[in-house]
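Record type: monomer structure entry
Structure origin: computed from sequence
Chain ID: A
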Amino acid sequence: MEKHFKQKVVIFVIPYDKNKNGVVIEIKSIEKRGNSEPENTFIKRVNEEIKQALNQIDKNRYYTELIENNIKSDNIIKLPIIFAGKEPYISSITKK
């Protein structure tokens, strides 16, 4: 079984104007696609990490700090960013 390296960082963007959007960004780093990894497997792995990052934002209530700063929940953007090596992914990918 292959091991895939992971790291995680969470960033908040709290606007001065409380009527503007606040942002919670979860950044994860995973191992880039190796030569022996099929494209389908890599796509599944990236998409799963994006899904998990979004779930982590909700599960761990990372947005609580924004709410405590009077940002309405409707104005909170939850943004997962997955890096595979130096390549960023912010939404699910499909086969080319």
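Annotation 1: Residues 6-89 form one domain.
Annotation 2: The chain has a mean pLDDT of 88.
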